Amino acid sequence: MLINRILKHGKKSLAYKILYRAMKKIQQKTETNPLFVLRQAIRRVTPKIGVKTKRKKKGSTRQVPIEIRSPQGKALAIRWLLGASRKRLGRNMAFKLSCELVDASKGKGGAIRKKEEAHRMAEANRALAHFR
């Protein structure tokens, strides 16, 4: 799933290279198992609750908080991690991805900020939860 999200213009072998180089950099930086760092980063970024737009009769829309299930939450986490790593300043994608994964596993970085923003939106619109 992660490889297919890294994928650009159908170049899967390049996506594999990017991921493996990022894993090697994580191994050098943290001196721990890079798969553990990857799993921990995804677990920390996975949102529990989000908002969904619901339309009312007269054209108005409301942001209704909804609970996010595990597969959808994991997909969002991967998307946010890759988006944050693409926005980072750095040399190449493998370097940016490794930095973002290490930061996310420690509980900081752009993807964690995105998760907290989603949780804040859901908390702000908690009064609309009965519109589910």
TrEMBL record:
Q: Main subcellular localization, coarse class?
A: plastid
Q: Which GO terms describe its molecular function?
A: rRNA binding; structural constituent of ribosome
Task: Cite the Small ribosomal subunit protein uS7 domain residue spans from the record.
Answer: 1-126
Entry keyword set: Chloroplast, Plastid, Ribonucleoprotein, Ribosomal protein, RNA-binding, rRNA-binding
- Gene3D superfamilies given in the database record: Ribosomal protein S7 domain
Domain of life, per UniProt, equals Eukaryota
Cellular compartments annotated: Plastid
One GO BP annotation is: translation
| Signal peptide (from-to) | none
Q: GO CC terms for this protein?
A: plastid; small ribosomal subunit
Q: Which PANTHER family match?
A: RIBOSOMAL PROTEIN S7
Q: Which family does it belong to?
A: Belongs to the universal ribosomal protein uS7 family.
The name on file for this protein is Ribosomal protein S7
Please spell out the taxonomic lineage of the organism that makes this protein.
Eukaryota, Viridiplantae, Streptophyta, Embryophyta, Tracheophyta
Gene behind this protein: rps7
